[in-house]
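All the exercises in this workshop are built on plain-text protein records. A record pairs a protein's sequence with a compact description of its fold. Read left to right, the backbone structure tokens trace the chain's path through space. Once this layout is familiar, the rest of the handout is easier to follow. Here is such a record, shown just as it appears in the course material:
>
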Amino acid sequence: LQTTRNTFQRDVIVSEFSVVDWSDTNGWTDDEPYNFFAEVFWRMELTSWVRRYAVFIFTDEPGNPISDNRG
């Protein structure tokens, strides 16, 4: 992000980022994504030139309200 900021001299908007286990091996504990997001949110909130950010949650768990198409 810092390189982009320095190159274009513009504020940054980070859209649709997440953590995903594409190999579907459950290679991490529940705490690891939580800690990742806690660190990312903390750093982005303290960075004045990060104007906005949005998390995109990847999940295919049946009944999970995040992935349930029924809303």
